[in-house]
Amino acid sequence: MSFESLAMIPASFVLGSIPFGFLMAKFLGGIDIRKEGSGNIGATNVTRLLGWKIGFPVLLLDIAKGALPVLLAKYLFPDRTDILPLLCGISAVLGHIFSPFLKFKGGKGVATSFGVFAVLAPGSIMITLIVFLSLKKIFGFVSLGSIGGAIALPISYYSLSLIEGKNFNTPIFWATVSVSLTILFLHRTNLIRLVKGKEFTSDKEKYHRDQE
């Protein structure tokens, strides 16, 4: 790889590390999102506390943090196959999770991972999205949808590769596995709250009633 292509990887990390949820909650909502609700800087906690007018832009920006580095790597270095875009995408996810702007703490990487694989594995991400939305709709917990989606991602990628008869992309598959396991690990406290029946609901009004 050339110096220019290698430089895309740390640049992707920096882009991924921009804490849009923290910044928008701070400057538009007047709160430190890390000290409110679940303490997470992602769109779910922002939406739960401040509503969709702030939460939805955070969601879009977090998705873009994952998609943009992958798209740029594909466009600027089309001869690098999927390895460089994949490395840039994973780097962006790691930046989101370990943001140097927040003392190497950050979000759980769900939206940013969605952006990465929306470009690299669109078929799989559609199945993942359906699983996420279905679980959220049925049970009312974004965390449960995220957990289910994380499990569905590598399974759907592997299954679609067999069904469509395309060449199996081993690096992308193992990336889906790694991201899935990372998201599951970062949701371990959510799993505990779900089991105990104390998980935060995704409904803003119900959440605030529960806190009273």
General description of the model:
The chain has one domain. The chain is 74% helix and 0% strand. The protein is built from 11 helices and no strands.
**Main beta-sheet strand count, sense and barrel state:** none
Helix content: over 70%
Order of helices and strands: HHHHHHHHHHH
What's the helix count?
11
Mean pLDDT: 92
Q: Tally the beta strands.
A: 0
The N- to C-terminal Cα distance equals: 56 Å
Q: Find the structural class using helix and strand composition.
A: mainly alpha
Note the beta-strand portion: under 5%
Which stretches are poorly predicted, pLDDT < 50 over at least 5 residues?
205-212
Main location: membrane
GO molecular function: acyl-phosphate glycerol-3-phosphate acyltransferase activity
Family: Belongs to the PlsY family.
Subunit structure: Probably interacts with PlsX.
Furnish the topology, listing elements before pairings.
Blueprint: H1 3-16, H2 20-28, H3 43-50, H4 52-76, H5 83-97, H6 110-120, H7 122-139, H8 142-164, H9 170-186, H10 188-196, H11 204-211
Helix pairs in contact: 1-4, 1-5, 2-4, 3-4, 3-11, 4-5, 4-6, 5-6, 6-7, 6-9, 7-8, 8-9
Summarize, please.
The protein is mainly α.
Jot down its keywords:
212 residues, 74% helix, single chain, disordered C terminus, globular, mainly alpha, 0% strand
